[in-house]
Amino acid sequence: MTGPSPELLGEVFSDALPAEDPVLYGHAALTPKGRFEARSLQSFTLTYVAGRYGLDDTGSIRIVLRFTADGGPLQMTDPTGLNYVTAASSNGVPLRLAFNANGHQRPWYQALTVSVSKGYLREGDRITVLLGDRSAGSPGLRLQSFCESAFAFKVLADVCATGHYVPVAESPAIAIVPGPPAHWKAVLPTLRRPGEPFRLGLKAEDRTGNPSDQVERALTLESDRPINGLPRQARFERGARSLVLEDLSCDEEGALHIRVLDDAGALLAESNPLVIRTGGEAAYWGDMHGQSGESVGINTAREYFAFARDLAFLDATSHQANDFQVNAAFWAHINELTAAFHKDGRFLTLPGYEWSGNTGVGGDRNVYFRREGRPIRRSSHALLRDRSDIGSDAPTACDLFAALQEEDCLVYAHIGGRPADVAYAHDPRLETAMEIHSAWGTFEWLMADCFDLGYRVGVVANSDGHKGRPGASYPGASDFGAYGGLTCFLMPELTRDALFDCLKRRHHYATTGDRIHIDLSVTGAQAFERYETDPQVAAGPSAPTARLSMGDIASCKDDAVTLSVAVSARAPIERIDVLNGMAPVATVRNPGDGAGGRRLRLLWRGAMVKGRGAKARWQIKARFEDCGIREIREINAWNPDRQLRREDDTTLSWDSVTAGNFGALDLWLDEGPQARLSLETNFTQADIALAEIGAEDHVIDAGGLDLELRLFRLPAALQPGPLATELRVPLAPEGDNPLWIRMTTEDGFQAWTSPVYLFRED
Questions:
Q1: What average pLDDT does this structure show over 279-299?
Q2: What is the CATH number of the domain that holds 231?
Q3: Is the pLDDT of residue 1 over 70?
Q4: Domain-embedded: residue 196
Q5: Is residue 173 part of a domain?
Q6: Phi (first) and psi of residue 625, to 5 degrees
Q7: Same domain for 682 and 665
Q8: Has residue 550 been placed in a domain?
Q9: 188 and 172 within one domain
Q10: H or E segment and range at residue 499
Q11: Does 169 share its domain with 191?
Q12: Are residues 10 and 125 in the same domain?
């Protein structure tokens, strides 16, 4: 059981040491050891044995856990509750226990401090800590929701009572492994050309989203179009966490799906749609932003890349560690890994890092290099001991862009721990895209800022994941409220050169994690003049064209254009919103089966602010009068700890977290003539006659940053398959007309296209 190599870790402890040899501070052991299922309840005994220095009066040890651990806070007050902890000393000295979720330094934020009081320990004396003490009725210690090959209970000691905590010689660790299968996934690409190879990825995830290794099953595979190389039967072997069928192809144009059935003929999963079409581009899916245990995530960087390729079935990825945790050895290691994992046409990697400057000096940026071996220009050395290259730091985003002028690289801006301030700094030649969705939430306001500033950028989405699951990033049971995003790159081939060209042309779109196919085009009565590069930035070639695609920049002689869009997804499409900048142009709704009226969607969304405190923690109660609740379906209910509570036949209550994204309930109701809904939240209240709610959104403002409740009716069943529209869009006579779409599926996934940037010719 091994975690990230110590020489690659960006962590710093006190330089003032009682002695050079950490063995003299004591050692720790854990029982039981071994492999334990994610999200299971366990009980562990951690024993600390004092070293040569003993442990002085008011000295203490700390058991620290990573920022990512989402098993819940440790507690010492309720012996019958979850995560109850006790401790005792072998010599009878009293101990004080305290837990603080932010009690230590990054990445070991969560800290249980065990302090000696009115006494001391000598060498060989012990402190025994029971984590999940069940003796008085506690169910035990809840483990985190995601797998980790070496989950460490890192033990630190302040043996001289100076307030300086240093690691003991060795800290115990366990393996957290997947549970039994709960739901199946079948993953295809979304656009290929006739005869072009593709792969089908199959996995069975456990109840918290980890690919299970406890599957042994014969599978039947069916397709609605002939697929070369697709077997009728396949077998998933125990111990494997995925089954990948390579070198499939289809000669027939059109959309296809693959259904996965068990040996009794029951449907286990249906894939996303794959469109087979002749053309110059295929669609490739990437999650280009996440971290591993060498920085603030978990597992090793090697495991990170292997998960992205083999368990998330990505076409492209990058590793984006916070720069102030990236030491020289780890930067070299990342470059070695991207070179080793990259294979043209199969799996694309980019070397890079997250420039993690404070928001006041520009905020978070992602830096991607076309080739390995380039220097890292950090925002700071905040967690690095070696300061020999501190002079190469770029402490502001302006400094970063200046330092990257001669580099072959591209940059994203994103909203994470340190939200990007694109008004403070932006270089359009380098910063081609805005990350508007991740596990942190949804951030359309980043594009709104760009529109206001006259920038012409594309949209991307990534996981910004810290839980070892790039490309399939469930938020877990912490305050992350969103499933991680994906970006679809439209390009002729899977190479680094094609990807860089795609990003420079903004020929890509973003989703909240589902693989959705989108066709978007703009046509006019007269030809457009399309620019190869942004004419606001640099002179470049242009050419007339009758049709524009997402991301294009063009001048236009017409006062209105025709926008055509067609969208298909695994689930039915609920709506397509057409936007000019942030202004709504039209909303196209799924017509459904015509049997509407009884399904009500109640949706809550928004954020508190644009910064680190974006998360809105909702507490909602819904009471119905003269109305029965026949069926409830939860949408985007990612957190297993935030359960919907049905208090009685007419009252529901629940907690939720949003940060620009949304959660929702679909409610099938038996409504009387006086049916009403009373909503009480910690942000706003409302009382509504349900007869007033129709297909159009009924919006209740809740303050904050677009905090709101929405109610609207949906048909009893939505129309499956593609949803398409064609409409005339009037153009503003001055400035840009950024034309783009936002679409939403019935089950709560969303996607955004990069805008077509149109401006009127004089």
A1: 97
A2: 2.60.40.10
A3: no
A4: yes
A5: yes
A6: -120, 140
A7: yes
A8: no
A9: no
A10: helix 496-505
A11: no
A12: yes
- Can you tell me whether residue 304 is helix, strand or coil? helix
Residues 411-430: what's their mean pLDDT? Answer: 95
- For 6, counting Cβ atoms within 10 Å of its Cβ (0-12 exposed, 13-18 middle, 19+ buried), the class is exposed
**Integer Cα distance of 407 and 404 in angstroms:** 5
| DSSP bridge partners of 705 | 607
Percent of the chain with pLDDT over 70: 99
Q: Tell whether pTM > 0.90.
A: yes
Domain containing 375 — which CATH number?
A: 3.20.20.140
Choose the final residue of a domain: 225, 248, 276. Answer: 276
When pLDDT is cut at 50, 70 and 90, the band that residue 416 belongs to is confident
- Three-state secondary structure string covering 166-182: EECCCCCEEEEECCCCC
How far apart are alpha carbons 140 and 41 in whole angstroms?
5
Residues facing 760 on adjacent strands: 556
Number of neighbouring beta carbons within 10 Å of residue 319: 30
Residues in Cβ contact with 343 at an 8 Å cutoff, skipping those fewer than 6 apart: none
Pairing assessment for the beta strands 274-276 and 191-192 based on DSSP bridges = parallel
Query: Measured between alpha carbons, how far is 240 from 455 in angstroms, rounded to an integer?
Result: 47
Residues 6+ positions from 460 with CB-CB distance below 8 Å: 288, 412, 433, 434, 435, 436, 485, 487, 508, 510
Q: What are phi and psi of 8, to 5 degrees?
A: -95, -5
pLDDT of the residue at 597: 67
The pLDDT tens digits of the residues spanning 154-187 come to 999 999 999 999 999 889 999 999 999 999 999 9
Residue 532 has pLDDT above 80, yes or no: yes
* Contact between 150 and 17 (Cβ < 8 Å): no
Which domain range does residue 636 map to? 599-714
Q: Are residues 170 and 189 in the same domain?
A: no
Q: Tell me the C-alpha to C-alpha distance, in Å, between residue 368 and each of 405, 430, 433.
A: 13, 10, 12
Q: How many domains is the chain partitioned into structurally?
A: 4
| CA dihedral angle for residue 655, residue 661, residue 666, residue 667, rounded to 10 degrees | 40
Whether the per-residue pLDDT at 330 is higher than 90: the answer is yes
Instruction: Using alpha carbons, list the distances in angstroms from residue 748 to 159, 262, 514, 639, 662.
Output: 52, 27, 10, 15, 8
Same-domain pairing of 466 and 498? yes
Last residue within a domain, chosen from 483, 513, 543: 513
Is residue 66 domain-shared with residue 90, that is, in the same domain? yes
307 and 265 inside one domain: no
pLDDT tens by residue, 212-259? 999 999 999 999 999 999 999 999 999 999 999 999 999 999 999 999
Burial environment of residue 696 by CB neighbours within 10 A (0 to 12, 13 to 18, 19 or more): exposed
Domain assignment present for 40: yes
Beta-sheet pairing, 662-681 with 599-607: antiparallel
pLDDT, position 600: 96
